[in-house]
Specification:
This protein is of the alpha+beta class and 138 residues long. It is 43% helix and 17% strand. The chain binds zinc ion.
């Protein structure tokens, strides 16, 4: 199992939830909504206090994924403050962004399994993963 996926499954096991917002609560991470223009969100850590900032223009679906993505940075790259850019072209994005997306996909999947007649696309949407991030399901 790769590292982002392993971290996601450990976090789910440890805290008993795969809901990014509940996990933030359990980990004392403040979630702040604000108008961030072109940015989905960012993660900020200072003096050991973490906060996740989410663009208040996002719908619930994208906000949840963004929260999972930023939680991924908290688990995987706690020392980096990276903006989660909208349409941040899959080709140019950094390793850290890919890992955070990968983490978020596996966090939201959690214990869910595809139905026998279900397409991957339908399965991932059912888990709350916006289509533009399905390419991070591996
Ligand atoms: Zn990011």
């Amino acid at each position: 199992m790769d590292l982002p996926r392993l971290h996601a499954s450990k976090l789910i096991q440890r805290l008993g939830s795969n809901d990014p917002f509940e996990l933030c609560k359990a980990k004392n991470i403040t979630v702040v909504y604000e108008d961030l223009g072109n940015i989905y969100g960012y993660f900020y850590k200072a003096n050991r206090i973490s906060s996740i900032h989410i663009n208040n223009r996002l719908n619930e679906f994208l906000a949840r994924f963004t929260c999972g993505h930023e939680l991924g940075h908290n688990e995987l790259h706690p020392k980096m403050n990276l903006p989660f850019l909208r349409q941040s072209t899959l080709f140019s994005i950094s390793r850290y962004e890919r890992e955070a997306n990968h983490f978020a996909v596996h966090l939201l999947i959690g214990e869910n399994m595809p139905f026998s007649d279900e397409t991957i696309k339908h399965f991932l949407l059912r888990c709350g993963i916006p289509q533009e991030f399905h390419c991070f399901y591996t």
